[in-house]
Description:
By secondary structure, the protein is an all-beta fold. It is built from no helices and 11 strands. It has strands spanning 2-6, 9-11, 17-24, 33-38, 44-53, 56-61, 69-74, 79-84, 93-99, 103-104, 108-112. The protein is globular, with a radius of gyration of 13 Å.
Amino acid sequence: AQLVESGGGLAQPGGSLRLSCAASGFTFNQYEMHWYRQRPGKAREFVADIMTRGSRDIRAYSDSVKGRFTISRDNAKKTLFLQMNNLKQEDTGVYYCNRATIDWGQGIQVTVSS
């Protein structure tokens, strides 16, 4: 399995970024997918996850991002997304795509700074 993140970079406070994670090597729509992040000096932490059950996607978020971030997936394109709005400086960190706690992407840097 392979997970490759893209879309990170620099954003101003209050701005937006959209992360993507291209998946390969497994049946994407059968797995719960997650976003984690590691902020400077802190342990890696859960951000959001999504699972597909029939025609429905079921989502969960950490309290710190709820209402600002949206996780989504395109099962046909085997891609996971994280839309991040109203970014705060404390959102700065390395963001990781994860397959059901098994496989990890290489991570991508998100920096929120004025």
